[in-house]
Amino acid sequence: MAEQGTEPTSQEEEEIQERTFTQEELDKIVQERLSRQSKQVKEGQAAIQKLQELEEAEKTEQQKLQDKLAEAESRIADFEKRDEIASIKSEVAQAQEVPVELLRGSSQEEIEAHAAQLKKYLEKPSAPVVPNEGKHSDAQPQGDWLREKLQR
Fold first, then answer.
1. Is 75 inside a domain boundary?
2. Looking at residue 124, what DSSP letter applies?
């Protein structure tokens, strides 16, 4: 027979065409062919499995990156919300004339309501009115039994 990778010569072709095979030889040829095909299928399946594993690893890496991105976006949103609340508190504190450090709330309405409540308590009350304050009488109170006993 001709070597692998070379064209068979015309004499070899004639031999191949004229030759007859026994059942055992045919079985052996078919078995070898099936064996090669089976090996190729196994190699193909292994390659497919390896590709799937690589894709899964890549997907996992992409998922990690997506999770990090979501976390970063969440933190940015938190910082923006804090900044917005601080700005609102500053504006309300200035408008209501209350200390910004005392204000609480997470929305403009809550902060304004809290400022209004604080303002009631932080306003300087007028001095209490005491009846007859500053008016002293020289008259002795009557019915003061202790004074009467002490003066005797």
1. yes
2. P
Domain span at residue 36 reads: 22-123
Tell the residue number behind the tokens 């062919």, with chain if given.
Answer: 33
- In order of 79, 83, 110, 138, the CA distances from 100 in angstroms are 19, 14, 14, 53
Q: Which residues of the chain have pLDDT under 50?
A: 1-3
CA gap 147, 142 in Å, rounded: 10
Between the alpha carbon of residue 62 and those of residues 68, 75, 97, 147, the distances in Å are 10, 20, 52, 96
Tell me, rounded to whole angstroms, the distance of Cα 112 from its chain centroid.
30
Whether 88 contacts 99, CB under 8 Å: no
With contact defined as beta carbons under 8 Å apart, do 118 and 103 qualify? yes
pLDDT tens profile 69-81: 999 999 999 999 9
Number of domains observed in the structure of the chain: 1
